[in-house]
Amino acid sequence: MKTENPIPMDSPAAFELNAAVQRHARSASFPDGIFERGDPEMVIQHLGVNTRGTDYVVGDIHGMFSALERALENRGFDPACDRLLSVGDLIDRGPESERAADWLEEPWFRACRGNHEQMMLESQSDVGDPERAHLWLQNGGAWVAGQTERWIKNFARQVAALPFAMEVETQLGERIGITHAEVPLLLSWDGFLCALERESRDPGSDPVAMRSALWGRQRRHPDHAAWIRAGNEITEREYEDDIEWWGKWIQAVLNEPIMDQRGEALAACAVGHTPVKAIVAHTNIVSTDTAAYRWMRPPRNEMPMPPDALPVLTLDEIIETRMRDANAG
To answer: Which of the 8 DSSP states describes residue 265?
Structure first.
């Protein structure tokens, strides 16, 4: 049985393997059909160090803008010098999705594209898929029925300009990545950014990195059977013989941090998409989606919303969370 890593980081085989996993695990997590790639010039946003104030990160907002305003007030957020960076999913499920349009006009607010923004774009595009429109409505998109056609088109233009990933520099010169769902396994952060750019400029390519950025859950909820079958597809090994080895190898890969192209761990990568009870880190991946919208549903809607239902963290606190949970592990 093999003991060496058969798939080098950022190699063509790494992309093949992730594409194969997406094929084998195809479901609502990696939906088929049209894929809105957006403007190639907007796919990645690089933010330099904020020398005037503090940068904050917030998880999935999902229309909970009043709760976000309270959270920012509690943190002493100053729009004159501070910035707020969002992992995406600004809309759906919560009561104030339409307010996302106004927030996207604010110069101090930056957001990644989430899978809910993606569903909105694909349901509204010229080649819109009725099934995709139904998928969006099932996942909280019914609020758009109260908006005019002109408003929807203007908002769609705003959403189409959202990047799939952001990178921000800290006061100490460290790099923090932000994307909605995840960085594909076996890709470095820099390899991921290169792949996003390449996929945005080649509409005929398989958007492997983009799908992971929007929908991926393989790092936290891996479908080992899909990875094993994908490994068999790439390496032409017998499926039954691969089960034990590939399972152990995948688990080892899942416990590795996201690296840069020099082989050094990224300071942190903030993601959302998969709800957690409280902000938590695994390796250098910090999960920020606390599902604040659930406080609008029974039985929680009969209780006061706690002040930390939609937490906002500084970049330093994102790194501290990574270090705390790494030490705890």
So the answer is: B
pLDDT tier for residue 1 given thresholds of 50, 70 and 90: very low
Catalytic residue among 116, 221, 224, 273: 116
175: pLDDT strictly greater than 90: yes
CATH 2.30.40.10 fits 28-219+260-328, yes or no: no
- Contacts for 14 with CB less than 8 Å, ≥ 6 apart: 7, 8, 184, 185, 186, 187, 191
How far is the C-alpha of 118 from the C-alpha of 138, rounded, in Å? 14
282 tagged catalytic: no
Q: Provide the CB-side half-sphere exposure for 148 (13 A, CA).
A: 3
Pairing of strands 55-58, 312-314: antiparallel
Cα-Cα-Cα-Cα torsion 106, 112, 114, 119, nearest 10 degrees, comes to: 70
DSSP 196-263: HHHHHH-TTS--HHHHHHHH--TTTS--HHHHHHHHHHHH---HHHHHHHHHHHHHHHHTSPPB-TTS
- Model-level pTM greater than 0.90? yes
Q: What is the pLDDT of residue 304?
A: 86
Locate the domains of the chain by residue range. 28-219+260-328
Strands (E), the chain: 44-47, 55-58, 83-86, 109-111, 165-169, 175-179, 268-271, 280-282, 285-287, 312-314
pLDDT over 90 percentage in the chain: 66
Residue pair 272/181 in contact (Cβ under 8 Å)? The answer is yes
**What does the pLDDT look like over 207-228, one tens digit per residue?**
999 999 999 998 888 888 888 7
Q: What is the pLDDT of residue 58?
A: 98
